[in-house]
Amino acid sequence: MSRSTTIRRRLRSFALLASGAAVAAGCGRADAARVGDVGDAAARVYVAPGKYDEFYAFFSGGFDGQIGVYGLPSGRLLKHVPVFSQSAENGWGYSEQTKPMLATSYGFVPWDDAHHPQLSQTGGVPDGRWLFINGNNTPRIARLDLTRFETEEILEIPNSGGNHSSPFVTENTEYVVAGTRFSVPAPQRDISIEEYKDAFSGMLTYARVDSATGRMTIAFQLRLPAFDYDLSHAGKGPSHGWSFFTTYNTEEANTKLEVNASQRDKDYIAAVHWKQAEQCVAQGKAKTEPARYAHNIMGADGIARTEWGSGVKVLTPDACPGLVYLLPTPKSPHGVDVDPTGEFIVGSGKLATVLSVHSFSKMQKAIADRAFAGEDHGIPVLNPEATLAGEVQGAGLGALHTEFDGKGNAYTSMFLSSEIVKWSLKDYKVLDRAPVYYSVGHLMIPGGDSRKPWGKYAVALNKITKDRYLPTGPELAQSAQLYDISGDRMKLLLDFPTIGEPHYAQALPAALIKDRQLKMYSLKDNSDPYASKNEKSTRVERKGRAVHVMMTSVRSHFMPDKIEGIQVGDSVFFHVTNLEQDWDVPHGFAVMGATNSELLLMPGQTRTLVWTPDRVGIFPFYCTDFCSALHQEMQGYIRVSPKGSSVALKWNSPSYKAGDAEDDHKKDDDHKKGDDHDQRGTR
Amino acid sequence: MKRSSRLAVAAASLLLLAVYVLPLWHIDLIAPQYPEGLGLRIWVDQITGLKPNDVNSINGLNHYIGMRAIEPDMIPELRLMPRLLAAAIAAGLLVALVGRRPLLYVWAGLFALGAAAGLGDFWKWGYDYGHQLDPHAAISVPGMSYQPPIIGSKQLLNFHATSWPGPGGWIAILALATVVAVAVFEWRRARAPRPAAAVGAGMRAMEAA
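The joint structure predicted for all components is written out below.
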C-alpha cells in the first residue's frame, strides 16, 4: 500500500518534471511556424514521374516481420521484402523452396518481430552489399542480398531470450551481434523464476560474417550478468574492436519491471572488447556448450536448406580479463550511438533528463588507470566521471536514439517530448528542435550511424499517429516524417505512412546499388532438380501418393494445362518454372482450394507449391500476375478422381505417352483407357 | 591495273574480314512496355539479340501475331554466307595479285550481284516472317503484316521497328563502293583515248554514292 503510493507520487513528480523541462527546453515554439517556414516543401520531396529517389531507405517492419523499402525524399514505398513472416503475396514461407528459411529449433516459425536493419559496412561506411535484421521474438538474424532484395540467410541465436540488441555490424562487417533483451537460463532448464539473479544469463552473441559470401557463423557467446541488453552499436575508427550495449534492469528484477527495473539512478553501457574476446577464444578460454539452432541458407539453386548447429563457444568475463567494462549511465539508457569519429558514445537515458556522452579515449585511460568505481558480478565498473565527455542539459524528455550528420552535430529522438533535438558534439549545446507527430522512436539519417553520414535528411519513425492521415478505424498506419537537415534548422518536409511498426531504418544513396540490381534469373543456370527448362521436358510423375507436375509458364500459357489422373488425398507438387527471360515478366500460379498461397515466379525461376485435393472435381488453375494481353487466357484444368480410381495419369505436353507415367497401377493400364468415360459417370 | 588500284582492291578485300566480327544489320524495336528496347543483330553467320535474351523475347512476342520463331539454325544462308564471304575475300586478293582488268570487272560484278542477292534474300526472309502468319494466332489484324523494313522505320502494332546497316554492313558497303570505284576507274583508264559519255555518267553515280 505504502509502496504503491510512493510509486504514484514518484510518477506524478516525473510528470511535473516533464512539463517543467518541456517549458525550459522551449517546446512551446509554435508548430505552425515550423511547418510554415518551408513553403517549398512539396517541391523538395517531389520526384517527377520517371525520375528516381536519391536514397533507398530500409525500414524494419516491426511486428510485420518484414522490410519496407522506401525512396527518399519522396517517401514512396518501393518494395515489401519478406524476411521472418510468411508472405502469401509471393509464396515466401509457403513454397517448398522457401519453407526451410523459417525453420527454427522450435519448428516452423512463420512470424517474427523485426527491429533493426543494418547495412553491411566496409571501412565504417555502408557498402550496399547486404542488409541484416534481427528477429526479436524467436531470436534470429536475417541477411538480405541487396542485388535481389531477397532474404538469403536466417541464423537462429541459441541461449537468447529475445534478440533486441542486434544486429549492429562492426566496421568492416566482421561481426553481427545478438544481445539478449530478456535474460534466461542458458542452457534452458526448469527452475524457479525466483532464481533469476543466480541462475539466469544475459548472453551476447557474435556471429562472424564471411567477407566474400556474407554467410554468418556463430563465433562465440559471452555469458554476462542477467541484465536486459537493450541496444548496441559497434565502435569505429579508434574504437573499432569494441561494441557497446545498453542495459536496463541492472536491478535484476524478475517481475513488474516497469517499476522494479527503474530504481537505480544509473544502469550501464557495457563496453565489450570483441578483439580481446577473439584472442581469448583463440587461446581456448571459451567452453563449448551444446546448443541446437537452425541456420537456414538460400542456395545458389534457389532452394533453402537448414543446417543444424550443435554447440557454441561460451566465454565468461572471469576467463577473459579485459573483455568487458561497465560504464554507469543514467537512467535505463535505450540507444547507444557512436559518433562518426568513433570517439563519442552517446547514451540516451530514456528516464533521464540529460544525455550522457562518454569519451572512448577517456574510457581507455580510465581502464589503464584502473579508475574503477567497483565491480558488478566481477565485472569492473568504471568511474562515471572518468569516462564522461559531457552531458547535454535540457535536451528533452524520453531520449531514445541518436544519429549524426557528419558535420559535428547529433540528433536525438525524444519520445515523451515528441521531438527531434539537434545538439553539438563540440559543446553539448542544443542547437535546434523540431516537433514530430507523435512520439518518435528511432530516427534515421542516411548513413547516420556510420563514419560518413549523408547528412541531408532525417526521418522520424513515430509510434503514435492519431490525426496525421484520414482515419482508418482503430488501427492506423505508423507515421514517419522527413526533415531537411542540410541547414542550421531542421525543416519538416513530408509525412508518409509506413507498413507494420518500423523501429529502426537505414538508408544509402541509390547510386550505390541501382546498377547492381538483378533483372531476372538465368534459365540456363537454373539448377532446381524439378525445373523444366523448356516445354518439351514438362511432365507429370506419380510416386505413390505424391504427384509431381513439372510445369512451365510463358506468355500466355502453362504447359501442361490439362491434367488428369490426380486422386483425392494425393500430394500434388506443382513445380512451375517461368521460362521467360525478359525483364519484369513474372508469372503467378494459383490453384483452387489450395490451403497455402499462390506462387509468384520471377523469370527463370522455379517454385513449388503443394496442393492436396480433398474432393473430386475439376479444378482450375491460373496465372495471378497480369503478364500479357492474353493473361486472362493463361489457365488450365486438373481433374481429381476418387482415391483408387483407375483414371490414368494424363497431361497435354509433348512428353506425354499413354501409360508411361505411373509407377504403380501398371496392371490397370490395359483396360483403363477405355474406362475413362465410365469412371466419369461413377463420380 | 595501276598499282594503287591493286592496293585498293586488296585493302577492300581485307576490310571485308571485319564482317566476320561485326554485325551486318541492326533491327531495333521500341514499345511502350519496352522503353529499354529489344533488338536483333544479324551477323554473317548468326542472329543474336541486342541483349542476351532478346531473340527469345522477340519470338515470345511474335507468337501472339502468329509469326514463326526466328531460329538461326533453320536459316541455311547463315551457314552459306561465311563461305561466300571467304571466297569473295580470296578472289579479291587474287585480283589484286594478278592485276588483270577483266578479272577485276568480273569480280566487282559478282560482288555487287552477291550483295544485291544478299539484300534481296534478307528482304525475302523478312517478307516471309512478316506475311506467313499462323491463321490461329491470338492476335489477327485484318490486312496487317509484320515485315520490318530493310532500311528505315515502321510501326508494327505497339512496336516501332527500325532497321539499319550495322558496322559490318557499313564496312561491306564501303568495300563494295571501293571495288566498284576501282573497276570504273580502271575501265575509264583503259578507254582513256576515246572519251565516252557513259563513263562520265558512271563516275557521277559513283560520286553520288
